[in-house]
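#onboarding

Welcome to the new folks! Below is a worked example of what a typical request in this channel looks like: someone posts a single protein sequence, and someone else replies with the predicted structure as tokens. Don't worry about understanding the tokens yet, we'll cover that in week two.

Example request:
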Amino acid sequence: MLFLLLALFFSPLAAAMAFLTTYHQYRRHFPEGRKALKAALETAVATFIVFMAIFLAAGFFFGRMV
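Example response:
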């Protein structure tokens, strides 16, 4: 249960930070804002999924150890 709460807090936070960082960097390279926005959203979604999977896997792994 603790890992689920951590995942629900840190996954969106990590996704938001990834979005902001990627958007800022891609905005320099793509004069069109739409390409930068699309790339940043893709990165944010991937980051969210990865962090959620890591936390859930850790919860499953450590939950079985106890």
